[in-house]
Design goal:
single chain, 86 residues, mainly alpha, Glutaredoxin, 3 helices, 2 strands, 8% strand, elongated
Length: 86
């Protein structure tokens, strides 16, 4: 993954920023990456994303998580009649 863009073309950094989620990148040396990810996230691939201390997963899981959050917020705004695009 180069510059936060995964093989799927999903731009992690931009997506997190647009969602208003503060993030910290923790680059790990290749020599310990697999062991560290295995111990922390039970995963062997990067990136692994945590939101609020909760493991979300990789790029695809983050995309799904952000879409779900957008749907939840949109539903709340609709219910209150506050959606800007109405």
């Amino acid at each position: 993954m180069a510059g936060g863009v995964a093989a799927t073309g999903f731009d992690l950094v931009s997506s997190l920023s647009e969602a208003g989620i503060d993030y910290v990148e923790l680059p790990l040396p290749h020599t310990i990456r697999s062991k560290a990810l295995g111990a922390i996230a039970k995963a062997q691939t990067v990136p692994q994303v945590f939101v609020g201390g909760r493991l979300i997963g990789g790029s695809e899981e983050l995309a799904a998580y952000l879409a779900q959050q957008t749907d939840i917020v949109g539903g709340l705004l609709d219910g209150l009649g506050l959606r800007k695009d109405q």
